[in-house]
Write a structure and sequence with these properties.
Blueprint: H1 3-12, H2 15-21, E1 23-26, H3 40-45, E2 51-53, H4 58-70, E3 79-82, H5 95-98, H6 104-120, E4 125-126, H7 150-165, E5 176-182, H8 201-208, H9 210-217, E6 222-225, E7 229-230, E8 233-234, H10 239-249, E9 255-256, H11 266-269, H12 275-285, E10 290-291, H13 295-305, H14 311-327, H15 349-362, E11 364-368, E12 381-385, H16 411-418, E13 423-427, H17 438-449, E14 453-459, H18 478-489, E15 494-499, H19 508-512, E16 516-519, H20 527-536, E17 599-606, E18 610-611, E19 616-625, E20 631-640, E21 652-661, E22 666-674, E23 680-681, E24 687-688, E25 692-699, E26 707-714
Parallel strand pairs: 1-2, 1-10, 2-3, 3-4, 4-5, 5-6, 6-9, 12-13, 12-14, 14-15, 15-16, 18-26
Antiparallel strand pairs: 7-8, 11-16, 17-19, 19-22, 20-21, 20-25, 23-24, 25-26
Helix pairs in contact: 1-14, 2-13, 6-7, 7-9, 10-12, 12-13, 15-20, 16-20, 17-18
The structure holds beta-D-glucopyranose.
Length: about 725
């Protein structure tokens, strides 16, 4: 529908109909917020709803759309949205896992496949990607983001938005993305969900905003502000960030959608007295769509009467919503893409294959003493122990509403399929978070003693993760610790598989006792087979951590991008930054992860020693696969600016690349570094580039020991 038609339509609309377009209501297929779903179809009939969340499927979508088209005065089609966060019916690894693949093509592909499935099920919009950089494993929602680094989240944003919105050839298979939660939700105090966010302007501009800027530059159709405040201003009412920055400075043209009930919650935030004030604040800040609070419907008529808002402001929001519906193609084809047959891993086998590939690329092998993995041919008897061994539904992780847990493959099944020559016994040994049961532990110990190798599967259940799932001690539950101790005491070689949604704070003994440790953040529908592929050696592990695993909770936040201090860490100097009771860095850090191949790096070199303001330099390194197996290496390029106006992080990621190498093969990996990538915010948060030396570190992880250094000089002509 063209702009003129949209204006004509707006001209015909009553205030109720306009406010209806600005309201999104939940159906009851799944519940994702505290305010219960009503009967949206009755309200659709009354012209009081513009879009529906939390429903999908042929009959539901067709009926709701029929009511909108046949029983309302203006016949404006509805749009339907769901949180398609890591898959729709085929479930891919949780974002924190998939980010460990450091693979932009993969991120894009799984988004495009999710869009394909969701649109067949009648969905037009997903509340994804989630782009809240997070350095705090206490926060349950850490599993929804792409880890601790701003650049990785920005690259992930670009890939996901493009995959959802622009990749599938058939326009009916494209899904509108909504970048959320704008902004800095990942910095909630103490990792406590919904808590206050109190961060510096520098952190906002350097860490939390860039992924959203990337999503906007990629053309994302929607943005959702976070529930929280930022330094005392509730994001749902934050005109400075939503209007001045997002809309005016960045030029964002899409819709801004409140989070679930968030406009009404401005009252509990203590910044609005009633629904009228709440609605005024949100509309003035730039929010077009009220998800589930009813504040626009209740408050805006009164606000209009009192002259607190204008009809033009309401029309602006309605115009954006109708343009969005136009861009979705709903006016021409309100049932666009809807299919009667159910999409998913059973009906679209290529998605199942793709999910297996995604899941195995997301696994991180973090310890492999004496090459315990892959399992040697002469190991005959394997005991698979632990509450996560046979827990197919947990593998799906949070936010997988349309995913069918019965189609998911648990670890036990995956290992049974891949280790066909071995004799496998299975004993759970404990529940996930029940009281420990000595008789169950005794059975597990007996099975371990009768085996040559134990695979111990510990982890969380999916209710422990995601929204409203903060924990002060993100670590194994007591029953699992007791089980692990008893198993380690048998002295049998143990492969520990950690099936969690976030970094765990592990006791030291739990890291030293097992011979191998595989970090298997929830991997989705094909999680078990992916684990089987790595354990049996059918896939050479290639995942690297996108998030640090601290030694102790008291270290949080700990991440690779800490800024330098005037008293840098020095083990020989008591007056240097330090902990008395824990190391300064994490147990496992950004980029850590092993392969069955051994990669050797040559020295890094640059194409020229200096760069000007608009120039680039090529940074290259030779890499050789010195192992006996083909494998995929991940290389990171970091920089450090040793003398700047503001204190700088000791390392800043600028790029990452994968290199696939046959045994003995040598390749050159080249990164292009543009001077604009060396900008940093000055004291007014405007980009600044200084003349002088820049250190470039290229290597396998954020550990200095894994890196090669080369320097360049920035020389800007006056
Ligand atoms: C979450 C959002 C989600 C929305 C709709 C809220 O509780 O914070 O991330 O998109 O519900 O399900």
């Amino acid at each position: 529908m063209g702009a003129d038609k949209i204006e004509q339509l707006i001209g015909q609309m009553t205030l109720t109909e306009k406010l209806g377009q600005m309201s999104m209501l939940a159906a009851s297929l799944v519940v994702t917020g505290p305010v219960g779903p009503g009967d949206p179809v009755t309200l659709v009939r009354e012209g009081r709803v513009g879009g529906i969340l939390n429903t999908w499927g042929y009959d539901e979508i067709r009926e709701a759309q029929r009511v909108a088209l046949e029983e309302t005065r203006l016949k404006i089609p509805l749009y339907f949205s769901v949180d398609v966060l890591h898959g729709h019916r085929t479930i891919y690894p949780i974002p924190l896992a998939e980010a460990c693949a450091f693979d932009r093509d993969l991120w894009l592909r799984t988004a495009a496949e999710s869009a394909d499935e969701a649109t067949r099920d009648g969905i037009h919009m997903t509340f994804a990607p989630m782009l809240d950089v997070c350095r705090d494993p206490r926060w349950g929602r850490i599993c929804e983001c792409a880890g601790e680094d701003a650049y990785v989240n920005a690259e992930y944003a670009r890939a996901k938005v493009t995959g959802f919105q622009n990749t599938n050839d058939d326009p009916h298979r494209r899904l509108a993305g909504v970048a959320k939660h704008f902004v800095a939700y990942g910095a909630v105090t103490a990792g406590r969900d919904y808590a206050e966010v109190d961060i510096s302007r520098r952190a906002l501009h350097e860490v939390y905003l860039p992924p959203f800027k990337a999503a906007v530059d990629a053309g994302v159709m929607g943005v959702m502000p976070s529930f929280t405040d930022v330094a005392g201003i509730a994001m749902t009412a934050h005109r400075g960030l939503l209007h001045d920055l997002l809309r005016v400075k960045w030029g964002f043209k899409g819709v801004i959608i409140s989070d679930y009930n968030a406009i009404g919650e401005l009252i509990a935030h203590g910044v609005a007295q009633d629904m009228v004030e709440a609605a005024v604040l949100a509309l003035k800040a730039g929010i077009d769509i009220d998800m589930m609070s009813g504040a626009y419907e209740q408050g805006l008529p009164v606000a209009l009467e009192r002259g607190l808002v204008t009809m033009q402001e309401i029309d602006t929001a309605v115009r954006r919503i109708l343009h969005m519906k136009g861009a979705m193609g709903l006016f021409e084809n309100p049932l666009r893409g809807l299919q009667q047959e159910m999409p998913g891993p059973d009906t679209i086998p290529s998605h199942r294959t793709s999910a297996r590939d995604a899941a195995r690329r997301s696994l991180v092998l973090i310890k492999n003493e004496d090459n315990l993995l892959p399992v040697a041919n002469d190991v005959r008897r394997i005991a698979i122990i632990g509450p996560l061994a046979d827990a197919q539904s947990e593998m799906m992780g949070p936010w997988c509403m349309a995913g069918d847990e019965h189609q998911a493959i648990g670890i036990l099944q995956g290992l049974r399929e891949s280790l066909r020559a071995q004799e496998i016994t299975h004993v759970p040994g404990s529940g996930i978070d029940d009281a420990a049961d000595p008789s169950e532990i005794a059975k597990a110990v007996a099975a371990a003693q009768a085996s040559e190798l134990v695979v111990l599967c510990l982890g969380e259940n999916r209710q422990h993760t995601g929204e409203a799932a903060s924990r002060t001690l993100p670590r194994p539950f007591a029953c699992q610790m007791e089980l692990a101790k008893a198993i380690f005491e048998t002295g049998k070689p143990v492969l520990l598989i950690l099936a969690t949604s976030r970094p765990w704070i592990l006791p030291d003994w739990m890291v030293s006792a097992p011979r191998a440790i595989l970090i298997a953040l929830f991997g989705g529908t094909e999680a078990g087979r992916a684990i089987g592929d790595v354990v049996a050696g059918d896939y050479n592990p290639s995942g690297r951590l996108c998030i640090s695993w601290p030694y102790r909770t008291g270290q949080i936040p700990v991440h690779y991008g800490m800024r330098g201090t005037g008293r840098p860490h020095d083990p020989n100097n008591g007056f240097s930054t330090n902990f008395l009771d824990a190391p300064i860095g994490p147990r496992w850090g950004f980029g850590d992860g092993l392969s069955y191949s051994q990669f050797e790096l040559g020295e890094a070199y640059v194409s020229k020693p200096t760069i000007g303001a608009d120039e680039s330099v090529d940074v290259s390194i030779d890499i050789t696969n010195g192992g006996a197996r083909a494998g995929e290496a991940t290389l990171f390029m970091f920089t450090h600016d040793p003398v700047a106006l503001a204190t700088r992080p000791l390392l800043e990621l600028k790029d990452f690349r994968k290199a696939e190498l046959a045994p003995g093969q040598r390749a050159t990996v080249t990164f292009r570094l543009h001077a604009s990538q060396l900008h940093y915010p000055d004291f007014n948060m405007e980009p600044r580039l200084d003349n002088g030396r820049i250190n470039i570190f290229v290597g396998a992880s954020a550990r200095r020991a894994d890196q090669k250094c080369v320097t360049i000089e920035v020389q800007q002509t006056a």
